Amino acid sequence: MRQFKDDFLWGGATAANQFEGGWKEGGKGLSTADVTRFKPDVDVEDMQKQWEITSADIEEAIRTQDSTYYPKRHGSDFYHHYKEDIALMAEMGFKVFRMSIAWSRIFPRGDEETPNEEGLAFYDRVFDELHKYGIEPLVTMSHYEPPLAFVTEYDGWYSRESVTFFTRYVTAICNRYKDKVKYWLTFNEVDSVIRHPFMTGGLIEDHFPSHEAFEQAIYQAMHHQFVASALATKICHETIPGSKVGCMLTKLTFYPYTCRPEDVLKAQQDMRATLAFADVQVFGRYPAYLKALYKKKNIVLKKETGDDEILRSYPVDFISFSYYSSSCSAADTTGLDVAEGNTCAAIKNPYLKASSWGWQIDPVGLRISMVDLYDRYRLPLFIVENGLGAQDVPEADGSIQDDYRIHYMQEHIKTMYDAVTEDGVELMGYTCWGCIDLVSNSSNQMSKRYGMVYVDCDDYGNGTFNRKKKKSFDWYKEVIATNGANVLDR
């Protein structure tokens, strides 16, 4: 019988900013997610316009209590449904649940010296409920939601104070949950600060005098996050013996559009744009090619004494990543079609089909990605996001027949297994994204559903928020129960 190893960590993944809700409860402060607007008048595939935000936009958001056009304020209301949701995860047989802690629930502004007890107590209840069912939490410390005051008053991660604020937060949660959480991730898709600096880095472009100054700020914020991640790893290891800390990347896999050497070179350069972030967190230093890019762009990082030593001394224990699709690269894009993907757009691959949102479906690309990462870093891998966003519509009898999701996941699980058994990749686990429906990060829509559990809520927050199992629920339950054999032995 073909199956994964006995201690393989099967589960699902969510993020507080898309799933938790309770945006005004328990002393929580506003975050960048709470002021991110759903824009139904903008093409959902035009992610850059979806994410554009100005100081005026933020001021408008602060003035309103609306959650219709600010859907991450309600998410899937896990804040009030966590017991029900965790029971559903347990019924599926989850070994692990990837979630995030909302930084602004613990430090509402981000700059306080004392954490918010109501926020800490909420996650105590969540972790206790998970452990009741034998589910290990895998906790992301920062997942696309810096506290808003930290952003508007300090310019987010551009400020050196960001390192102090973040390490204070990490110290608080590691001390509080040292007996409850073993597995941690520092920054979700840490590479994304380059692509969406407000959501990840808390950077508002109109706070800076020019485009060049803004670009400098982005790279400075990136440095501060590297330092903060290393210090978070140090704090975690010292506070929680036996804990494991990983970095988390957007696995953007690029193929040369043709075998022209120029296209091959462009694909290599595009891949490096993401791999640079893992290079720093694994090897503890800036790679030469990144230094060359800084020189070309006239980027000068402001470092404090000891920063380089911090990076060298506290590398991560494992590599986690998201994988949804692949793309192509070409030196000359004239006349080529562009496809959307996870937080970026790239050239369409004519050999692949695409989801309803234009994301190209490529199970083999997952195996390629795993081999690339493992060969480069020789550290255990953890697939912490993978799944299909689709417009699930209940049938007349109320059932939700999401066979397309089952097919997507089973094909990815097969190639995942091949990477382990044929390529020798060390894989810790697999947590499918949005195991219970949540607000899509890329489009701010509820209708772009990923879960095996349906949440009765539309794009405008209308609905009961009741939970309902989809067809994929029982299928994934069998995957976990057989350790993958029900997929692999067919």
Overview of this protein structure:
The structure is a single chain. The protein has 490 residues and is α/β, with parallel strands linked by helices. The chain has a single domain (9-252, 279-289, 311-324, 355-488), classed as Glycosidases (TIM Barrel). It has helices spanning 16-19, 47-51, 55-63, 78-92, 103-106, 117-132, 148-154, 161-176, 197-201, 211-239, 261-283, 288-297, 307-313, 363-377, 403-421, 471-481, 485-488; strands spanning 9-13, 96-100, 136-142, 183-187, 244-250, 253-256, 318-322, 326-329, 338-340, 345-347, 381-385, 427-433, 453-455, 467-469. It has an eight-stranded parallel beta barrel with strand order 1-2-3-4-5-7-11-12, surrounded by four helices. The chain starts with 8 loop residues before the first strand and ends with a helix.
Within the CATH hierarchy, at the fold level, what is the topology? TIM Barrel
Whole-number average pLDDT?
A: 95
Which runs of at least 5 residues are low in confidence (pLDDT < 50)? none
Integer count of domains: 1
CATH class: Alpha Beta
What percent of residues adopt helix (DSSP H or I)? 40-55%
Shape descriptor reads: globular
Q: Could you name the CATH homologous superfamily?
A: Glycosidases
Number of helices: 17
Q: Name the CATH architecture.
A: Alpha-Beta Barrel
From the alpha-carbon coordinates, what is the Rg to the nearest angstrom? 21 Å
Strand elements, count: 14
